[in-house]
Specification:
The protein is α/β, with parallel strands linked by helices. It has helices at residues 36-45, 50-57, 61-73, 125-137, 149-154, 168-180, 195-207; strands at residues 2-6, 12-15, 22-24, 85-95, 97-109, 115-121, 142-144, 160-161.
């Protein structure tokens, strides 16, 4: 190894005469470490924002966003068992500004409290049906919702239930979500600037 100039940050660069590759002796950039992805998942689930996570891990926000997308892409959807009961509800958030409302619709399995599926979008039949289709394919025994009129058109009357306290578990889970993910708080200056990033963070939180 011989000296081969310096990096733009002033670190000595070395050149290998055998293979022709260059390197520095001590790397301070931590994105290459094996445990970085696991740390990103942990900090994301604990509610740290993009810039906060980047500061803690000492990596750039741009690299962190790329890692979040990569991690979420490799998380498979969970297996949805047949014949279970589910609660479906929506939680409101914002994209880019507080003038742009977005809705997170998800289904919570009553017994295990696992999220079967979720969708982020406008509060329309298309968004709701993206989640409900998964439940219909799993031959859901019953689906509990609030009295939003859209559900009456999308769910079979035989399994659709709107009784009082039928959505207690998912309503409590809303509180947990708002507590853990700062971007979902009601009165906050933190909100997602990208629909893709919001969906990826939810995927990490729900299924990783």
């Amino acid at each position: 190894m011989v000296k081969n100039g310096k990096t733009r940050y002033g670190k000595q660069r070395y050149l290998c005469k055998n293979c022709g590759k260059t390197q520095v002796e001590n790397y301070t950039y931590h994105a290459w470490k094996r445990e970085t992805n696991r740390q990103i998942i942990t900090l994301t689930k604990e509610g740290l924002g993009i810039r906060s996570t980047a500061r803690v891990l000492r990596i750039s926000p741009t690299t962190l966003l790329k890692r979040i997308l990569s991690i979420a892409k490799n998380i498979p959807k969970p297996f949805v068992p047949k014949g279970k009961s589910y609660e479906v509800d929506e939680i409101r958030s914002f994209i880019k500004s507080k003038n742009r409302l977005i809705w997170i619709v998800y289904a919570l399995e009553k017994e295990s409290k696992n999220v079967a599926n979720f969708c982020v979008g406008a509060r329309t039949n298309k968004t709701l049906n993206h989640v409900l289709t998964t439940l219909h394919l799993s031959d859901a025994q019953s689906i509990y919702t609030d009295k939003l009129r859209n559900y009456t058109y999308l769910i079979d009357k035989k399994i659709h239930k709107t009784k009082n306290f039928g959505t207690n578990h998912i309503e409590r889970n809303h509180l947990t979500l708002r507590t853990h993910l700062k971007r979902l708080n009601r009165k906050t200056i933190c909100f997602s600037r990208s629909l893709l990033i919001l969906s990826s963070i939810l995927k990490i939180y729900f299924w990783s």
